[in-house]
Amino acid sequence: MDASERWQVLRLHVEDGIPLAALARETGIGLRTLERWHHRYKSDGTPTPPAPAAIATRRVAAALVTFTERLALTRPRPSIATLHRLVATEAGRTHQPAPSYATVRRIVAALDPAMVTLALEGPASYRDRHELVLRRRADRPNAIWQADHTQLDILTIGAQPAKPDRPWLTVILDDYSRAICGYTVFLGSPSAMNTALALRQAIWRKPDPTWVMCGIPDILHVDHGSDFTSRHLEHTAIALRIRII
C-alpha cells in the first residue's frame, strides 16, 4: 500500500470523523498501524513519508502531469507505452523536456484509486469499492436505510423460452447493522412499484420469526434513478415522515 492509498484510509478518520477502531474493522488494517499513521499525520501533516512518485514528478511540468493524468483516466486507458509516446509528443509541442517512461508510469501509479475506478469502471464499481465505509455512519438500527438495484448474473426462462432474461434485485439495507430489511426480485427494468414492494416488505414485520428487521427509517439513501425520484415514492416518504437523500 503506497502513501496515497494509506491517506485514502486515514482521511476517513481525519476529515469524516470515523473512529480508527471502525476503520480497522472495515479495512482489515491493524488498529496500532492506523494509530501510528495518525500520530505521524499530527506530527508533520503527512500520514506517511512522501511517495517516490511525488518526488519524481516534481521535476515534470505541472501541465504535463495533468496531461498524463487526463489520458490515464480516459476509457479505455491507453497502455503505458502509448501514454509515454503521447506525453513526449505533447512535451515537444510545448517545448518542454519529455519525461521518461518510468516517470510516466509513476504518475499513473500515483493516481487516486477511487478516481481511477470511477473514471474507468463507472459509478457502480466506485460505490461497491469505495463508498461502503463512508456510508456506515448510523448510530442505531433504522436510523439510515439504503436502497439500490443490481442486475443478477443469472438467466431465467420466462414466457419466451428462446429469450432468457436477467432478473433484477432491489435491496433495502439497514446502514447500522448491514442487515437486509426487504428485497424484491423481478424481470424488466426497475420501477417505482418494485421499489415500493421492497420498501413495504422492509417496513412490515416478517412471517419468518428469525427475520426480525422492520420499522420505519429516519433517512433513506437512494440514487437518482427515475423510480427513486418518482412522485409515488415521494408521497410515501411524506406520509411516513422518511427523509430521502
List the helices and strands and how they pair.
Elements: H1 3-14, H2 20-27, H3 31-44, H4 52-57, H5 62-72, H6 80-93, H7 101-109, H8 113-121, H9 123-130, H10 132-135, E1 144-151, E2 168-174, E3 180-186, H11 192-203, E4 219-221, H12 231-240, E5 243-244
Architecture overview:
By secondary structure, the protein is of the alpha/beta class. The chain folds into three domains: 3-51 and 114-130; 52-109, no CATH class; 138-244, Nucleotidyltransferase, domain 5 (2-Layer Sandwich), CATH 3.30.420. 48% of the residues lie in helices and 11% in strands. It contains twelve helices and five strands. It has helices at residues 3-14, 20-27, 31-44, 52-57, 62-72, 80-93, 101-109, 113-121, 123-130, 132-135, 192-203, 231-240; strands at residues 144-151, 168-174, 180-186, 219-221, 243-244. It has a five-stranded mixed beta sheet with strand order 3-2-1-4-5. Strand 2 (168-174) and strand 3 (180-186) form a beta hairpin. Helix 5 runs antiparallel to helix 6 and helix 6 crosses helix 7. The longest helix has 14 residues, at 31-44. The chain is extended. The relative contact order is 0.09.
- SS elements, strand count: 5
CATH topology of the largest domain: Nucleotidyltransferase, domain 5
Structural class: alpha/beta
User: Numbering strands along the chain, what is their spatial order in the largest sheet?
Assistant: 3-2-1-4-5
Describe the biggest sheet?
5 strands, mixed
β-strand amount: 5-15%
Radius of gyration: 23 Å
CATH second-level architecture of the largest domain: 2-Layer Sandwich
Tell me the domain tally.
Answer: 3
Give the SSE string.
Answer: HHHHHHHHHHEEEHEHE
Shape: extended
Main CATH class of the largest domain: Alpha Beta
Instruction: Let me know the CATH homologous superfamily of the largest domain.
Output: Ribonuclease H-like superfamily/Ribonuclease H
Classify the helix fraction into a percent range: 40-55%
Classify the oligomer.
Answer: single chain
Average pLDDT rating: 82
